[in-house]
Amino acid sequence: MRHLARLALPLLAALAAAAPAAAHKAWMLPSSTVLSGADVWVTVDAAVSNDLFVFEHVPMRLDNLVVTGPDGEAVKAENAATGKFRSTFDLHLTKPGTYRASVVGEGLFATYKLNGEPKRWRGRPEALERDVPKEATDLRLTQTQQRTDTFVSLGKPSTPALAPAAKGLDLRAETHPNNLASGETARFTLLLDGAPAANVDVEIVRGGVRYRDAPGEIRLKTGADGSFSVTWPQAGMYWLGAEVQDDKATIPNARRRAAYNATLEVLPQ
Amino acid sequence: MRRAVTALFPTLIAGPALAGEVAVSVEIPRLDVSEYHRPYLAVWLEGADGAALANLAVWYDVRKKEGEGGAKWLKDMRQWWRRIGRETELPLDGISGATKPVGAHALSFSTDAAPFAALKPGHYEIVVEAAREVGGREVLRLPVSWPPQAGARAEARGTSELGAVSVGLKP
User: Fold this and answer.
1) 3-state secondary structure chain B
2) Number of domains composing chain A
3) What is the ipTM for the molecules in this complex?
4) CB pairs under 8 A between A and B
5) CATH code of the domain covering residue A197
6) Residue B65's pLDDT is what?
C-alpha cells in the first residue's frame, strides 16, 4: 500500500502516463499558440489527467521542463509553480518564431514477486539493487522514456525549435504544429531514436471530453515511413499520443517503453 | 476607345491618363452590444490558389500601447494572419491605419500601381476580414477577374461583423 501511495506522487504519475491505453494523459496547455506583436507572454498549464484539458488528477512536475526558442536556444520558463492539480509557468516571447516547451522524462519501472506476492517499484536505475530484495522472483524491468510537447509561435512560425530528439519518441512536423486549421490535413512523422517508427498506433483526442458522451478519439497508425496524416474535423485544442515498446533499453535485461504526446491547437478557418 | 488601345498595347498602361481604378467599399455595421470596440479589419488580394498576394488595408489599434500598439490582437483576424498577416511588417505605408467607425468606407487603388499593375490575367479574390474584441469575426470574399472589364462589380453582405462589401472595377 505504501508502494501505491508512492506511485501516486505526481512525478511518478507523469511517467506512468506512458502506460498503455487506460492510463492518464500528460499534457501542457498554452494560453495561446498563435501570437502577434513584438513582446508577449504565454502561460502554460501542465497536468496529468483523464479529462482533456481539465486538471483533475495530479500536476505534471516541471523538473525536466526544457523550452527551446526560435534559434534553437534554451528559453527560461518564468513564474513556475506546482499546485495540487496542475503546474504552471510563463514564457516571455521576445523573438519572432516558434517555441517548443517539452517535459522529457526517463525512469525505470519494475514488477516482481516476493514470497508469491506481486510488487511494483519505480525509481532510478542505481537504486534498483538497493530497493528490490535479492529473493525477488519474476523480475521484469521497463525503462520509460517520455516526452510531452507543446508549441507556440510569435509572428511567422519557424522550424529550428522543432528539430527532433535523437532519443525516444518524437515528432517530425511536415505540417507546422502552429499552422493547423479545421478541415485541413496535417502530416507528421513519428520518429523513434531519430528513425521513422512504422506501424505505431497514434491517438488524437479533442479537448472538452468532459462535456461529451463519447471521447470521439481519432485512431491512426503510422505507415512504413513512420508518417501519418490527420484531417482536423473541427477547431479545438487536441491531444496527440503514441507509444512504442521494444527491447532497446539502455539498462540490461529491461524492456523499453517510449511515449510521445503533444498538445496541438487547430484554429477555425 | 481606351479599351481598344489597352487591348492592343497592354504594356502601355503607364500614364496616369490611362489608369483604371479598383474601388472597394467596406461597411462596418452598427451593432447593438453592451461593450463595443471598433473592429480590426483587413482587406487583401488572393490568387485563385488561395495564396495571398498583397495587403490592401489593415486597420488596427495603432495607439493602444506605446511601441507595440495593438499588434497583439492582429492574429484575431485569423485568415489574414495565416495567409499574409504574420509575414507583414506593420505599419505599412498607405495601407495600415487606425480602426474606423461605423459606416461605409471607400478604398481606391489605381490599376497602374502595385499590386494591380503587375497582376497577370486570371481570377482573383479580394478578401475582407473583420474581428472585434469581445465580439465575433467575419470573412467575405469578392471575386475579381483580371484584366478588369468595364462595369465589373462584385458584392457581398455580412451577417454579423461586416455590412455591405463591394468591389467595382474601372479599366
Assistant:
1) CHHHHHHHCHHHCCCHHHCCEEEEEEEECCCCCCCCCCCEEEEEEEECCCCEEEEEEEECCCCCCCCCHHHHHHHHCHHHHHHCHHHCCCCCCCCEECCCCCEEEEEEEECCCCCCCCCCCEEEEEEEEEECCCCCEEEEEEEEEECCCCCCEEEEECCCCCCEEEEEEEC
2) 1
3) 0.80
4) 32
5) 2.60.40.10
6) 60
